[in-house]
Design a protein that fits this description.
By secondary structure, the chain is an alpha/beta fold. It has helices spanning about 10-25, 35-45, 60-75, 90-95, 110-140, 145-160, 175-185, 205-210, 225-230, 245-255, 280-285, 295-300, 315-330, 345, 355-365, 370-385, 390-395, 400-420, 425-430, 435-445; strands at about 5-10, 30, 50-55, 80-85, 100-105, 165-170, 195-200, 215, 220, 235, 260, 270, 275-280, 300-305.
């Protein structure tokens, strides 16, 4: 499919010359002769590349205002600024505003076409990368056989077809965004946009701008996340970080199903399904006065809770296997041979959760170790977790043999129970004991069996 170039110039002769050049190079074109025409063309459909005269009919630098307008809608679109009033200050201003290139009139036709070709290649590459990243994220599955993961998969299947709002609780890196994307993929809004607004990363003064957008004095519009998500899903990540004043305005939007842009005069109707996430205990945030209880109840029609990885030890071998295959495929390598029962992996607390585990597997793949010992050393060095057997031995040197044996057995059996998610039969089978004998041993050592 041929790329489309938007040509904006108030001089009809120059506009036609550029149009003929671009068409001869094999590209489609759209034309605009003034500021308002250009604004309508941009808002109607974003081009792949724009060529903009810096001075049109609204002022000395209205071409730069159009550049800024395009960048608020999609920062990746290359914009070539063209002018007959060039100076160093103007060039610097254009490039700082995000211009891809800056060219003076009268321009060299070959040079302009070279700029256009490079701009088209640039946007194609960025779109391919974006498509690859989205496919990669969507290609990941929710891996695990613990009750927590089984329940979440069941919840996703049930609530995806509804339009209800969802609140996902879980620690950082546990897979909250993945759950939201799975819901989007299975929902009736799957063909609509999936927009992420990260409450933890925004400047405190920009929350409302990012959410509601803005109508600028020059007539241009900066669209907010609510409008960008129309017909799709808006994921508000770490919503507990949003200030109380903005929370009250979000509540108003949920009640009225409409809002006004900043400096706007008319209402914008809302057609968005909202999913929120929080890594903080939201009920504690409510009690501390940091989050509105009425907003929480509006957002929390369905609640999903994902546990930290340290509470899902039996999922670790499955995740190691899964990420080993995924990462090996992505890096075009032979599948990594990682021991899924490695004690460093199973006994680590995983403060970064599944994301930290995935990063570790990627690190191993990049370092391309050629033996299992080297893989084990990378894991050991990365996690900095002492082997339970070594630590038990060191701590046992200053106590009687009977107590040392009991301590070792207690630590060993607790670790194995965690590994098999409290399943007595699987634990007994792995360590080579009868179920009844294991029950007696656990009771004798004062180890509480998991429910």
């Amino acid at each position: 499919m041929s790329s489309e170039i938007l040509i904006i110039d108030d001089n009809v002769d120059i506009r036609n010359i550029i149009n003929d050049l671009i068409n001869d190079a094999g590209y489609k074109t759209r034309l605009a002769a003034n500021y308002n025409q250009a604004l309508n063309e941009i808002d109607k459909k974003l081009p792949d590349v724009a060529i903009i005269d810096v001075k049109l009919d609204k002022g000395d630098n209205d071409g730069l205002e159009l550049l800024s307008h395009i960048k608020t809608k999609d920062k990746n679109i290359p914009v070539i600024i063209i002018t007959g009033h060039a100076n160093i200050e103007m060039a610097i201003k254009a490039l700082k505003a995000g211009a891809f290139e800056f060219i003076e009139k009268p321009f060299n036709q070959e040079r302009l076409i070279n700029f256009v070709n490079r701009a088209v290649e640039n946007i194609k590459l960025k779109n391919k990368n974006k498509e690859f990243e989205n496919k990669l994220f969507y290609s990941y599955e929710l891996i695990g056989d613990t009750e927590n993961i089984k329940n979440i998969k069941d919840q996703i299947n049930k609530i995806s077809i509804s339009e209800s709002r969802i609140f996902i609780n879980g620690p950082t890196g546990s897979g909250k965004e993945l759950i939201a994307r799975k819901i989007h993929k299975q929902s009736q809004r799957q063909k609509g946009p999936f927009t992420v607004l990260n409450g933890a990363l925004l400047d405190i003064e920009k929350y409302e701008l990012e959410l509601f957008g803005e109508e600028k004095n020059n007539g241009s519009i900066a669209y907010g996340a609510l409008e960008k998500s129309t017909g799709g899903i808006l994921l508000i990540d770490e919503i507990s970080e949003i200030p109380l004043e903005t929370q009250s305005k979000i509540l108003r939007v949920l009640i009225d199903q409409k809002f006004k842009r900043i400096n706007g005069s008319h209402d914008i109707n809302v057609d968005v399904r909202i999913i929120c996430t929080s890594s903080k205990n939201i009920k504690n945030e409510i009690e501390d006065g940091n989050f509105r209880e009425d907003l929480y109840h509006r957002l929390n029609v369905f609640e999903i809770n994902i546990e930290p990885l340290k509470n899902r030890v039996s999922d670790i071998p499955l995740l190691v296997d899964y990420f080993s295959e995924k990462v090996s495929t992505n890096y075009n390598l032979k599948k990594l041979n990682i021991d899924t029962n490695n004690n460093y992996l199973l006994n680590y607390d995983w403060p970064g959760n599944v994301r930290e585990l995935r990063n570790l597997i990627e690190r191993i793949a990049i370092l391309t170790p050629d033996s299992s010992d080297k893989i084990s050393n990378i894991i050991k060095e990365s996690l900095k977790t002492p082997d339970i057997f070594n630590s038990a031995s060191e701590n046992s040197l200053s106590i009687p043999l009977k107590e040392a044996r009991e301590n070792f057995e207690k630590e060993y059996l607790t670790t194995q129970l965690r590994k098999f998610n409290g399943n007595i039969s699987r634990t007994a089978d792995f360590i080579g004991m009868e179920r009844s004998a294991l029950h007696r041993k656990l009771k004798g050592l004062g180890i509480k069996e998991l429910d």
